[in-house]
Amino acid sequence: MADGMTALLLKAEDKNRWSVTLHHANGWEIALPAATPAEYLIAASEIDYSAYRREIRNLREQHPLLEERLEVSMADFEDFVAEALLLPSMLRDIDPVGYFVLGHLLEQSLRQEDDGSALFLLNAAAQLLQILEEPIRAQVYLRNALEIACDGMERATQQERYEKLVETYPELKSLCDPILLPKEPGEHPVYAAYSIFGLLALQFALYFHQDKQRIARCDYCWRYFIPKTRKETHYCDRETDGFPCKQRGSRFKRNLDTEQDEALLVYKKLRDRMYARMQRYITALPENRQDLIPMDYLQYGDWSENARLARIDYLDGKLTAEEFLRKIDTMHDLEDYSVGAAQTSPTETAWQRMVADDIGFDPELHYPKGFMLLDLRTDDPKWQTFSADDLRRKYQEGHQSLREKYGRK
Length: 409
Prior knowledge:
The chain is an alpha+beta fold and 409 residues long. It has three domains: 7-217, no CATH class; 262-328, no CATH class; 350-406, no CATH class. The chain has helices spanning 37-45, 50-62, 74-86, 96-109, 118-132, 134-150, 158-168, 173-176, 196-208, 245-260, 262-283, 297-315, 321-328, 350-357, 363-366, 388-396, 402-407, and strands at residues 7-12, 18-23, 29-31, 190-193, 216-217, 224-225, 239-240, 243-244, 370-374, 383-387. The strands form four sheets. A four-stranded antiparallel sheet has the order 3-2-1-4. A two-stranded antiparallel ribbon has the order 5-6. β9 and β10 (383-387) form a beta hairpin.
């Protein structure tokens, strides 16, 4: 299948697990530990390229070869190549597939014949940077594909997840359609891929071809995981910041439910009104109280205790929303006790739109490192500093992890 060619081979070890084999053109092979397609996709999405990405950025921004000047030095180019060739070693342990592919691509790139022009040197340098970024680019595609196919899709079937993915990114249909897999592959089938994302797309095809495992997103930590049962599952078994996601997640989910419950929102407004009424009454002179609604400390305390107990009964399901509001409206402030459905988050955030519009959407490149803003619309304008994370959180507002929303204040 891959004789005489460098390739990534995917070999079936049993009915569920596949091993990736790094196949060199000379026939030499290295087999990596076997995993299910779901396990492989999750692991690939979590590889930490931050240090590697930083070194590529430093090479691009700081090397003298890429400075704007009239002449391009061959010595600078050779030094640039030497530095570029050192970077893949950073991936040897964390991403053996990326390390293997980079070695092959860089070797091919350096075989180009030099035409002696300065433009050749600059183009060759640009190509080297493009190659070095290949593992990062593949992970960006993978993360965006997982967000489309697996985020908020716990109740969907594998077919529905696949259809959503290819409807959003039609270019993936020819790469990860499970129908393209052989109907009778044999006892130990072997498939070949010739790029990092080609391998990931093949893993996607195998993932959609089965329904024993599904990929879900933890509502608390926002990482992907494989639920142990077919039951709808919202939290993984990991610990994040020293706490189990299930423990923290269920606790913060109550905060979210409270924020979205219209009856509780009415309760909060009524509580604020009662407190303001008490403050106005107790601070007014006795001769000025005739036009105020009586509300002293004892009356407010009685109302507050009654409302507290009613709220507990409502949260326990002992009272309907209408009964809850009737019980706390002892002074008949409310005109209507009917409430609508719980508020919901926006159907689509700015972040989700950007992911759906471009499989190559990379937040590391999209957002500036930081910027300052002076809002002249205020009476006392002051400079404000915003980081890339501030912008990301703003774009994700309404669709973010419970940890991001409640646990990192």
